[in-house]
Specification:
Length: 749
């Protein structure tokens, strides 16, 4: 009897320790064992039941009888905002009595005008003294995100217990079950026994996984075959509290196409993208220039060539505005409207008169400003033709187009209509288009939409095939028909010089129709990178001003670049051949010429010969080659002149290297050997015997620096020098070697 009295005295002591939170669960288990070893069974059951009741009360686990009469939740809330304040009444003027935090799950029992009644525990003794009802509000953020996520209610009894105690203890089968929709399968259950009882009477639910508020919530455990509605993909970041300024192009930005715009006006899924590029160039160069008749800025010279020192400062501000409809993550946009104006300013300084303008009084400095429209088109997604989003689209307006991988035949922004798309999971791509060339501004080279479109149009059809004829190589076959009917009046540029036709022969206007058949490829074979293009041109010129008769066009072009990467540098080898005309008067035009070339080849704009337009005859009205062009086509200019298939042609053999000294710094070096294919036409134009085919050696070095390892700031610089060969010296008997130096800074947003 003494032991029983001691145990009875132990009972209130244990209860007190439990209530104070000072007696851990292992200690409770030990008390049970001690009691069993020293007391009678009926007394053990009495004490154990008392301890269990107190333990469940402290843990906040209701009794079965309490659950049978408990209020069932209406919905389940999840806090999306950083915190959600709980008020005594459904208005913000009432007293705040608590708060929930981001990611927390809360049962709601009533909804009233966007307010939800919830239940919070009293803070004293972990809720031992009961709970209090309060109200939380469903708010809306800056971008339409909700402060609370509203979901279907959880399985009533199991989840209430799990949220309160984390034990998963479920009431007996006699308890009233939670309200669960018929379409939701029941969660698998396992039986769990309560200590001190012989039979398991309480089933246990599988635990709900922990919700990570920084991720999209997973489906609820009692909804295994359904997904939970989440905010639109572009609003997820806002709902998690992440908002970024407009000047940040890297993170989510409404002016970078990351968030929808004008939803009330245009409807859903419209996105706006703004791109800004500031391109600044300084260039210093020297090449032979003709002395104008009867005037020169440099006296005391008897040469037919003047001082060729020149400098150019040019700045282009490119603003790209794009409005797009549709989800473009896995498929093309439904619609796209794009407008790209370019604001140009140039300052050119020379040392001879009449080089910049036809009037000698215009001086040797020219400052001009111009605004060109480089893109203005509408793109319509016509249809999807497979479950891989193979598609057909139509684009109408001023748009970019490139004929091949390196821009040998055409690369510009003409006015046209183009049908394009792909097939067979993007293995095949095609283009079918009709284009008319836009007249260019003389000094900036930008599109001048104030003038009529040129009567120079072309039709194109091409097909790309990936991984053909071998893996990693893309092949392209193309057909382009160029029709030039500018055989009416002569055209003079903005500076007063004759642009069409070139100052050749009798200078009478002419036209031509020519067909180009081409094959191009780009890719790699093993470790060898390969880029190649081949064209055959055939057609007819109405009446060439030099031959003064019709000419049958029969010309050929081929270019190949092979390269291989060796760790941090790439070694390149280049070969180019453009056929030249043997006899200007035989009725055959065998010199190859492009429509509007812009080759990315053999050093491109770092090369002297490709970068500069070297004047040849006609007071500089006819250039040996155009600016940013490799073909010696004898045009007035690449931008405003016509194709000329009576030219000397070219043979180029080159070697180069791209050296990544640092991740942000690349060095470039190129050496090209240049030779004419046939110089008979040059002898005819200069009224001298045909010069040697040896044009010379073009050597250049350059660098590209990206201080932030991105394209936002790019600094380019290069120096190029032409070491004249015998043929060049016979055409331009100058003592000073031609050179060019350029420095370019590009800022992008």
């Amino acid at each position: 009897m003494k032991k029983n009295n001691n145990i009875m005295r132990l009972k209130p002591l244990a209860i007190g320790l439990i209530l104070a939170g000072l007696l851990p669960v292992p200690a409770i288990a030990q008390i049970r064992a001690d009691i069993r070893s020293e007391t009678k069974p009926n007394l053990v059951a009495q004490v154990t039941e008392t301890v269990e009741k107190v333990t469940r009360k402290v843990a906040g686990i209701p009794e079965v009888a309490e659950l049978e009469n408990a209020e069932r939740p209406l919905v389940l809330l999840q806090v999306f905002d950083n915190r959600s304040v709980v008020y005594t009444k459904p208005n913000e003027e009432s007293r705040a009595i608590g708060e929930f935090f981001k990611g927390q799950l809360v049962d709601a029992y009533e909804e009233k005008d966007g307010w939800y009644r919830v239940r919070i525990q009293d803070s004293l003794l972990g809720g031992f003294l009961g709970s209090t009802d309060g109200w939380v509000q469903q708010g809306t953020g800056q971008y339409g995100e909700q402060s609370l996520g509203v979901f279907a209610p959880r399985a009533f009894s199991a989840d209430v217990l799990q949220d309160k105690a984390g034990t998963g203890i479920r009431p007996s089968s006699t308890a009233t079950p939670g309200i669960v929709p018929n379409t939701i399968p029941q969660t698998p259950q396992v039986q769990r026994a309560i200590p001190g009882r012989d039979t398991p009477i309480v089933p246990r639910d599988i635990a709900i996984p922990v919700i990570d508020p920084s991720q999209v919530p997973p489906p609820l455990p009692n909804l295994p075959r359904e997904t939970v509605a989440v905010p639109d993909r572009w609003r997820i970041m806002q709902s998690l509290g992440f908002k970024f300024p407009l000047f940040d192009p890297y993170n989510q930005n409404v002016i970078k196409g990351d968030l929808p715009v004008l939803q009330n006006t245009l409807g859903p899924d419209w996105f706006f993208n703004l791109g800004i590029i500031a391109d600044t160039l300084y260039e210093q160069r020297n090449f032979p220039v003709p002395v104008p008749p009867a005037t020169s800025s440099t006296g005391g010279q008897a040469n037919i060539f003047g001082d060729g020192e020149q400098s150019i400062f040019a700045h282009n501000l490119i603003v790209s505005l794009s409005l797009t409809k549709g989800n473009t993550t896995f498929k093309p946009p439904d619609y796209e409207f794009r407008l790209t104006p370019v604001f140009n300013y140039t300052d050119v300084r020379v040392n001879e008169d009449r080089l910049l303008k036809i009037a000698s009084s215009s001086g040797d400095v020219r400052r001009e400003g111009f605004v060109g429209i480089q893109e203005a088109f509408v793109d319509v997604h016509l249809r999807n033709v497979s479950d891989r989003y193979d598609f057909d689209s139509l684009r109408v307006g001023i748009q970019p187009f490139i004929s091949d991988f390196r821009g040998f035949l055409f690369q510009d922004l003409p006015m046209g209509i183009r049908l394009f798309g792909n097939r067979n999971n993007n293995i095949y791509q095609y283009n079918i288009g009709y284009f008319k060339r836009v007249e260019k501004d003389t000094n900036s080279g930008l599109n001048d939409i104030r003038q009529d479109l040129r009567d120079d149009d072309f039709f194109v059809a091409n097909l790309y095939r990936q991984d053909f004829p071998f893996l990693g190589f893309t092949s392209q076959v193309s057909y382009i028909h160029n029709r030039n009917d500018e055989d009416g009046e002569r055209y003079f540029d903005a500076n007063g010089f004759l642009a069409r036709p070139s100052s050749l022969g009798d200078q009478k206007p002419f036209g031509y129709h020519v067909d180009y058949f081409g094959f191009s490829g780009d890719g790699h074979y093993g470790r060898m990178n390969i880029t190649t293009s081949t064209y055959y041109a055939t057609g007819k010129t109405d009446r060439h001003p030099l031959a003064q008769r019709e000419q049958d066009i029969d010309a050929f072009f081929h270019a190949t670049e092979l390269s291989r990467d060796f760790d941090w540098f790439r070694l390149r080898g280049s070969f180019l051949y453009a056929s030249g005309d043997e006899d200007p008067f035989d009725g055959k035009a065998e010199g190859f010429d492009a429509i509007f070339e812009n080759p990315q080849f053999a050093g491109a704009d770092t090369s002297f010969f490709i970068r500069q337009n070297i004047p040849l005859i006609g007071g500089g009205g006819v250039a040996l080659s155009g600016r940013n062009g490799v073909l010696p086509s004898l045009r007035s200019s690449k931008e405003q002149g016509q194709s000329n298939f009576i030219n000397p042609g070219l043979l180029l053999l080159g070697i180069g290297a791209d050296i990544d000294v640092l991740p942000e710094l690349r060095l470039v070096a190129n050496v090209n050997k240049l030779e004419f294919d046939n110089t008979n036409v040059l002898g005819t134009l200069r009224q001298q015997r045909p010069p040697s085919t040896d044009l010379g050696i073009d050597a250049s070095v350059g660098f590209q620096y990206r201080p932030f390892f991105s394209q936002n700031i790019v600094v380019n610089g290069s120096f190029a020098k032409l070491l004249p060969g015998k043929g060049y010296k016979e055409l331009f008997p100058e003592d000073k070697d031609p050179y060019s130096f350029l420095f370019n800074v590009i800022l992008s947003f």
